[in-house]
Amino acid sequence: MPPTQAESVIKNIIREIGQECAAHGEIVSETLVAFMVKAVVLDPSNGFNMDRTLVKSDVQKLVQLCVSRLLDSKNPSLDTIKMQVYFDMNYTSREEFLEEHHRVLESRLGSVTREITDNRACAREELESLYRKVVSYMLLRSGLGSPTDIKVVRETTAALQSVFPQAELGTFLSLSKKDKERQLKELSMIVTGIRLFNRDCGKGGEGIDDLPAILQEAIPATTQHIDSQLQVAQEQAFRYTAILEKVTKNSLRSVELQPYMLKEALYNVRQYEIFLQIILSDIITCAQEVEMMIKQLGAQMEQLKMTVKAKTAVPTSLVFPIFISLSNLWTSFQDETVLISVLSNLTAHLEQFLGAHELLFPEKVMQDLLNEVTVRTDVYRMKEHMEDRVHMVDFRKQEWLFPETTANFDKLLIQCRGFCPYTFATADGLLLPGNPAIGILKHKEKYYTFSTRDAAYSFAESPETYIDIIREKAKKNAELIQLLELHQQFETLIPYSQMKDGDKHYIKPITKNETSTQTETHILPPTIVRSYEWNEWELRRKAIKLKMSAYYSSYTA
User: Fold this and answer.
1) Listed residue (429, 466, 460, 436) closest to 450, CA to CA
2) Is the pLDDT at 475 greater than 50, yes or no?
3) Based on the number of CB atoms within 10 Å of its own CB, is 368 exposed (0-12), middle (13-18) or buried (19 or more)?
4) Residue 168 has pLDDT above 90, yes or no
5) Is a pLDDT exceeding 60 seen at residue 547?
6) CA–CA distance from 505 to each of 102, 411, 446, 494 (Å)?
7) What does the pLDDT look like over 381-423, one tens digit per residue?
8) Distance from CA of residue 511 to its chain's centroid?
């Protein structure tokens, strides 16, 4: 089948599934449906042959299976997939978000800019009207107050007149379009700087919010909220893990609990935890930026005060650069304010994908399941086997990495999101955290950690066997592809952002040798844990081992 025809068939299938779901009162996005189609076809138990063209009966079966799964409101797997798709569509990296945010703001200024640069005013009334438009442009670009607020307009007009009186419009109009745009932007920054300075001196600042103070209040409040959500999610994950760990040792009990979908619930809450960690890491970055900018703001204000102190006239060459610098700094405060708001909203919206837990596992059910079960945290599990290290002499062919032999040990990308691949493969999909202190196995340029030394030894005997098992399990639970970062094995299910950014973050492990020099060896897969050093916020970040996915997010001002 030609690619264009195949694409048309797929679009029709997606449309039909969406309509079927809508008929049952469930509105689903095309992105979610597309993912579900791929997931259903991927699952071998559904019997689809990837090597032949779908016939009519296949299409009908595919539509029926997808609709059935999309309407299953009590399935944690569906909630996890919905969460992953939502995050994929609504999260982007800090850099990409700010770039897009600035692009949107510039595009909104386009019509106002053209009204000014294309103007051919000659008469006095026309020039006065043009000057008012310039004032409006200043306000729209700076975001410091509303163009309809008369007090704000008067203050901005006075600041503009001090550096660009209306009499200079004639010279302005004689410039080329490009030079007009450049001068408008520069004037806007100078006027913004003047207003910010006047506000700091107590002589103005109408309509200007105290963004540093707002951010200093909002950031701790937001981190506190996410911390509490993380704590709840982790406690839930620890309880599910403890129950599953006991169940896997009793095959009869395992069959009894299968309808409860415990594993699927564990995958759901672990994915939620990971997304919260990603958001929290971004907020910590905001906190670091804001701390630095507040210091810069104070220093620039002090420099400006010293420059203009007791002087009736100050050369523009001295003050204009500081005004422009103040304007740029304030734009950064605005960026952080918008970013915190977006991240906070994203956090709130993720909670909608956790509903199955209360339906399937009310507290009474959980207490019954937890009877005679010991609940252990991830940290406790790691400490428990901290001294059970792999012995290098036991391995001739495999390469193991340890903190004392690898300089960037904590920056290595660990496969399976850091969970133990051996436990997952042999304990029916159980997720236990891997412990890097035991030793990191390097296999085919990829890195694996394990929950115990025994697990490490067993996996190392035949890595491909267990990797194949993991791949087959992921085919049956498609949410595992993103949860365990198995995208390279399932290219058709790679999120758009990961296809786009897949080659951005290659890094080489640095091995320490006996002469204390650093030797670079081998290239890692494309994502690392970000690691910075910065006051008390860094203590928070070091507790977060996470992958920074990059997703697109649209901002509505």
Assistant:
1) 436
2) yes
3) exposed
4) yes
5) no
6) 25, 11, 14, 16
7) 999 888 889 998 898 888 999 988 888 888 899 999 999 999 9
8) 30
- Predicted confidence band of residue 507 (pLDDT cuts 50, 70, 90): very low
pLDDT at 53: 77
The answer to whether 314 and 307 are in contact (CB under 8 A) is yes
- Which is nearest to 448 in space by CA: 412, 479, 407? 412
User: Is 496 in contact with 552 (CB distance < 8 Å)?
Assistant: yes
Q: Beta strands 446-448 and 510-512: pairing type?
A: unpaired
25-77 pLDDT per residue, tens: 999 999 999 999 989 998 999 988 777 777 888 899 999 999 999 999 889 99
Tell me which long-range contacts 37-46 makes (C-beta under 8 A, separation of at least 24): 37/10, 37/13, 37/62, 37/66, 38/478, 38/492, 38/493, 39/81, 39/478, 39/493, 40/65, 40/66, 40/69, 42/475, 42/478, 42/490, 42/493, 43/475, 43/476, 43/478, 44/472, 44/475, 44/476, 45/476
Would the pLDDT of 309 be above 90? no
Q: Is residue 56 exposed (0-12), middle (13-18) or buried (19+ Cβ within 10 Å)?
A: exposed
Residue found under tokens 């189609």:
37
> How many percent of the chain have pLDDT more than 70?
84
3-state helix, strand, coil in the chain (%, to 5): 65, 5, 30
Q: How many distinct helices (H) and strands (E) make up the chain?
A: 22, 5
Q: In angstroms, what CA-CA distances link 106 with 40, 142, 361?
A: 43, 11, 50
Which residue type is seen at 324?
Answer: I
Which residue's structure tokens are 């909630």?
A: 79
Separation between Cα atoms, residue 504 and residue 502, nearest integer Å: 6
The torsion of the CA quartet 397, 398, 401, 406, rounded to 10 degrees, works out to 50
Q: How many CA atoms lie within 13 A of 64 on its CB side?
A: 7
- Residue 171, number of CB atoms within 10 A of its CB: 10
Phi-psi region of 513 (alpha: psi -120 to 50; beta: other; left: phi over 0): beta
- Measured CA to CA, the distance from residue 484 to residue 267 in angstroms comes to 10
Who has greater pLDDT, 519 or 56? 56
268 DSSP β-pair partners: none
What is the predicted pLDDT for the residue at 5?
Answer: 64
Question: Which pLDDT score, from 0 to 100, does residue 252 have?
Answer: 63
How many whole angstroms separate alpha carbon 433 and alpha carbon 413? 14
Q: Which residue has the tokens 């970040």?
A: 541
Nearest to 541 by CA among 411, 369, 357: 411
The token pair that represents 13 in the structure block: 């299938």
Provide the residue type at 54 as one letter: L
CA distance 498 to 490: 12
Q: Which residue(s) pair with 419 in the sheet? A: 433
Average pLDDT, the chain: 86
Q: Which of 209, 348, 226 is nearest to 284 (CA)?
A: 226
* Among 106, 132, 137, CA closest to 121: 132
Q: Which two tokens stand for residue 376?
A: 């252990």
Q: For residues 506-539, b (16+ Cβ closer than 10 Å) or e, as one string?
A: ebebebbeeeeeeeeeeebbbbbbbeeebeebee
Q: Is 232 helix (H, G, I), strand (E, B) or coil?
A: helix
